[in-house]
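Hi all, a correction to my earlier message: I attached the wrong file for Gfo/Idh/MocA family oxidoreductase. Here's the right sequence:
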Amino acid sequence: MSVPVADPVPLLLVGLHGHGRSQLRSLLPLAASGLVRLVGVCDRVPPAPDDDLEGHGPVPFFEDLSTALERTRARITVLVTPIHTHLPLALLALEHGSHLLLEKPTTATLAEFDRLVDAVEASDLACQVGFQSLGSAAVDAVRSLIAEGAVGRVRGIGGWGAWKRTSAYYARAPWAGRRRLDGRDVVDGALTNPFAHATATALAVAGGGDRPPLGIEVELHRAHPIESDDTSALRLRTADGTVVTLAVTLCAPESVPPMLVVHGERGRIELEYTLDRVALHRPGRAPHVTTHLRRNLVADLVDHVRHGAPLSVPPAATRGFMHVLEAVRTAPDPLSIGPEHQEVREEDGVVHRSVHGIADLVVRSAESLSLFSELGVPWARPNVEVHR
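and the right structure:
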């Protein structure tokens, strides 16, 4: 007896340019397998010849989301749009009866997050948040190692990220590098957007992704002439008392894969969350390295819609992260890192700023669970503490 094959799920992509291109490419294998069917793309800017739509066949283009939802009757809407548009566009999709995949960060404020959670619950529809690293089996692997006592009692979790971003990165969109735009919160800083996965993944490893931290300390700095932070440190304590410290920069000489480190009394676990790679280090033994599969979050959402399978990243799983974003949002504006602490290079009108010694500094912070101001950095200032 043959088993009937389900029809592809109609899917609408909102936000075609920038990261939207990556999302479009990730949909190609899902469309080829018959899991989804791209029924439309929506953006203020029409598709360009190199926007990879050929693999999806003729795809209608819309400039207005409400019109796109009415005409396509998309069952799933993928929102890859600026941070400050997440809530209004998500509410519109829910009103039209469409399930959601919402790009991270979830919303621009904690109050907006609460509104989103309420709207999703009232709609009886599903919402998946695009923290891709939380779809990785590497997170479960690290949690299993901790639970079985592979490194003994956990002293804390440190994380560091060092990427190279130029002036072109901040010139790509009006909201890039902004804390606010046209009276709306944006919060496009290193901690809350490029390295949002570091925070969310560290909280997931610590078991605190769905709960507010007990306390949050942030140190926000900037080398670029922007509003938001590009070089920052964060320390929090989860609800069960685990200390998490993260140090990140977009002003590194070169980009390297970010790292989370679980510091145990009898060893350490390293998680390269962009590579889904876990390394267990224990004294007297060779490191044990494993690489894990990552679940496509759209495929995961389809599985939930069709079969009721649990979502990998429902909004509730990002509540801890949203408290971090709120701490960054309400903190004083980032402090400028003086030119004497930078190397500035310009080529073809593009400026790259590298903070002296920053690649080593973020690693020192993660290894010692210290903030910049506690490591004798001349440009760092004491932390801002935010209580729950």
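Sorry for the mix-up. Residues 222 and 248 are 11 Å apart (CA to CA).
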